[in-house]
Write a structure and sequence with these properties.
Elements: H1 2-12, H2 20-28, H3 39-46, H4 50-53, H5 62-65, E1 69-72, H6 91-96, E2 100-103, H7 111-122, E3 142-148, E4 154-155, E5 171-177, H8 187-192, H9 233-237, H10 242-245, H11 251-261, E6 270-275, H12 281-294, E7 304-308, H13 313-322, E8 330-334, H14 338-348, E9 352-356, H15 373-390, E10 394-398, H16 411-415, E11 418-423, E12 430-438, E13 446-452, E14 455-458, H17 462-466, E15 480-487, E16 490-502, E17 510-513, H18 517-530, E18 538-544, H19 556-568, E19 576-578, E20 581-582, E21 588-589, H20 594-603, E22 608-612, E23 628-632, H21 635-643
Parallel strand pairs: 1-2, 6-10, 6-11, 7-8, 7-9, 9-10, 15-19, 17-18, 19-22, 22-23
Antiparallel strand pairs: 3-4, 3-5, 11-12, 12-13, 13-14, 15-16, 16-18, 20-21
């Protein structure tokens, strides 16, 4: 190949065949490594024609020249590594024209081995004379995952059934290209690297102000070493007031939303809001954006950025007009490219950001389409870094799967600080905002809102809302009982209805709406075993009025009383409430917050309440004498007191 090319060029220049080597030295002298004495040394150490070493003409592209000149016995080697390692004198040539491949002398034990090493080195990228043998492998690597399209769980191999959601044939192959991760921690890190540090919360400082990051981090660290090392908890909390640190929201709706979050918005927090389509996520967050932009008594008004990947700015403006939002500092932006969103955050400098939704945005450097596992992970990580670096609270709207879980990988719920879930029946006016995860408050809080023409309104007394239908005169009120439950720190009274219907075949059906089916089966087994009720040939239907979900065991007594009332066809006193958990032996177990439960029942006009006998000792007698407590030790005593 090039050996014949050199011969042709030398003869054309008037050189004899014996002077080919001299012509080659004159022709290639400008490409030689300064750290090597002469081309003669290279020719002798290689033990084969120089044309095989200098395989291919040089071009102006450094990548195409890589490996075209081989330096034997170089200064920079890594054992048996075949990576391009130019010696120090060659670096300026490497950056301009060609790359030099260093091979250490101890690698070569005989002529055959040395020739194979040098031949493989000379045949790397840009070498055409050796037929591509021994090409250097590209730096891109890939890793295969099997991801469940239903719940987002990831596995290293294929399984017929997802072990997380128990669905069959839902695992899809996903290839992750590791080369996209880069030195800076992935596409998410590169997307936010130009985002400046914020002034709202000095959690993260710039590299010029704080301590430098660890050299071992390789540039992947994005939280600066603030304060020069570990700090005392007392020193960090000194001079900081939790009351003024959080960002409160004005109005009834704002206060209800703040109570769910634990007292207000935490600067730099990342909040994920999920829920079924049409439940009111976008409506509530648009109202929250308007409240933040208007300001409060303790915080001045400020800009808020509302980004939508599903609606145009005209559609959002129409919805804001319907909700009577007129804030001058509310900025609307319709985009799906997350880098444009981050650029808008840098330009506007908002007090809060709302992204609707995380499944519609994408990063150009991340693999997959918008909404895929890799895109959701990288976009969520980018927004997390943006929130921590700027101190801006960011809301993310998340889609849900058919099973009700938030769509995307499970890491989406891990990286965020707060996970809120809005639930409610489509035909019902009320909505519940539950806390699934909260790093800055309790996970037991629940916000109750009502969907009206002007948007979401906070419900001051949820119990009155759910018991409003009890005031009407109903002829068939035999199978209903009121349970006093706790939703977070708020007591709520709910009505439980039951219907028992005899069938000719066994066993009967068990249908529960608002109650866990396994919990219903347990209570029916206790009633048949401990109370001797023959419910085996009965169809039992349970319904919680208002479409709410009863998750607390304190409603066990009310469910059992409603079933007994329907089976025995005897009504329950409408002014009586029920509190207590039922054990497998039929005993009534103590539940917490008894005084708050009884106070709520008394405020709503109930005259008596069935409670576990053990709770009488814990009551301090602060309740009015108008509310009569009926202590019972087991479910048989309750049935005897009410129906026998």
């Amino acid at each position: 190949m090039l050996h014949r090319l050199l011969t042709t060029r030398a003869q054309a220049a008037g050189c004899q065949k014996s002077s080919i080597k001299a012509a080659a030295m004159q022709h290639w002298s400008k490409w030689l490594c300064p750290g090597r004495r002469s081309l003669q040394n290279l020719y002798k150490q290689a033990w084969f024609p120089m044309g095989d070493l200098l395989a291919g003409d040089f071009t102006t592209s450094p990548q195409k020249n890589r490996g075209s000149i081989v330096h034997i016995g170089g200064h920079n080697t890594r054992g048996s590594s075949m990576h391009c390692q130019p010696c120090q004198p060659c670096r300026q040539f490497n950056n301009n024209e060609a790359a030099f491949l260093s091979i250490s002398e101890p690698l070569c034990t005989n002529k055959t081995q040395k020739m194979s090493i040098v031949t493989a080195a000379a045949a790397s990228n840009g070498s055409r004379g050796l037929g591509g043998l021994g090409r250097k492998k590209s730096g891109s690597k890939s890793k295969v995952h099997w991801v469940c399209e239903n719940c987002g769980e990831s596995y290293s191999q294929w399984w017929g059934e997802c072990k997380n959601c128990k669905e069959m044939n839902t695992l899809k192959q996903f290839t992750e290209h590791l080369s996209t991760a880069g030195k800076g921690g992935g596409a998410a890190a590169r997307a936010v690297e130009h985002l400046g540090a914020g002034s709202v919360m000095n959690v993260v400082q710039s590299k010029s102000d704080g301590e430098p990051n660890s050299q071992k981090a390789g540039g992947r660290a994005w939280l600066a070493n603030v304060g020069g090392g570990p700090q005392r908890l007392s020193d960090i909390a000194k001079g900081r007031s939790q009351l003024h640190w959080r960002l409160p929201l004005p109005g009834e709706t704002g206060r209800e939303f703040s109570r769910v979050l634990g007292g207000g918005l935490v600067p730099g927090s990342l909040i994920l809001v999920g829920g079924d389509p049409g439940v009111g996520k976008s409506t509530l967050l648009l109202q929250v954006a308007g409240l933040i932009a208007e300001g409060s008594e303790t915080h001045s008004p400020g800009p808020v950025l509302y980004v939508s990947g599903e609606e145009s700015v005209e559609q959002i403006s129409s919805r804001a007009d319907r909700l009577n939002i007129r804030s001058h500092d509310l900025f609307l932006f319709s985009a799906t490219d997350l880098e444009l969103v981050l650029e808008a955050i840098r330009e506007v400098g908002p007090k809060a950001v709302i992204l609707d939704s995380i499944q519609t945005v994408y990063l150009a450097e991340a693999t997959g389409s918008a909404g895929s596992v890799s895109q959701v992970r990288e976009c969520a990580t980018a927004m997390l870094r943006a929130a921590k670096q700027t101190g801006i609270p960011i809301f993310l709207v998340g889609h849900v799967t058919k099973s009700g879980d938030i769509a995307g990988p499970k890491i989406l719920e891990h990286v965020v600080d707060v996970v809120l879930y809005m639930e409610g029946e489509r035909l019902q006016s009320h909505r519940l905002l539950r806390v699934v995860k909260n790093r800055y408050g309790s996970t037991d809080e629940v916000g109750v809102f009502s969907m009206v023409e002007g948007g979401m309104e906070a419900v001051a007394s949820p119990s009155e809302l759910f018991l409003s239908a009890r005031d009407a005169d109903t002829k068939n009120g035999a199978a209903a009982a009121v349970a006093v439950t706790m939703e977070g720190s708020r007591p709520i009274l709910l009505e439980v209805q039951a219907l028992c219907s005899s069938v000719g075949q066994q066993p009967g059906r068990r249908t529960a709406n608002g109650v866990d089916g396994q919990r219903l089966s347990l209570l029916l087994a206790v009633l048949m075993k401990q109370a001797s009720l023959k419910l085996g040939n009965q169809d039992v239907f349970i319904n919680v009025v208002g479409g709410l979900q009863l998750r607390e065991p304190a409603a066990d007594v009310a469910i059992a009383v409603a079933i007994c009332s329907s089976y025995l066809e005897k009504p329950v006193d409408r002014n009586m409430a029920f509190i207590g958990e039922i054990g497998l032996g039929g005993e009534l177990r103590l539940v917490g917050n008894m005084e708050r439960r009884l106070a709520e029942a008394f405020k709503l006009g109930f005259k008596s309440c069935v409670v576990p006998k053990l709770s009488v000792k814990t009551l301090k007698g602060s309740l009015s004498e108008s509310l009569v407590t009926i202590p019972c030790s087991d479910i048989k005593e309750v049935i005897k007191h009410l129906f026998l």
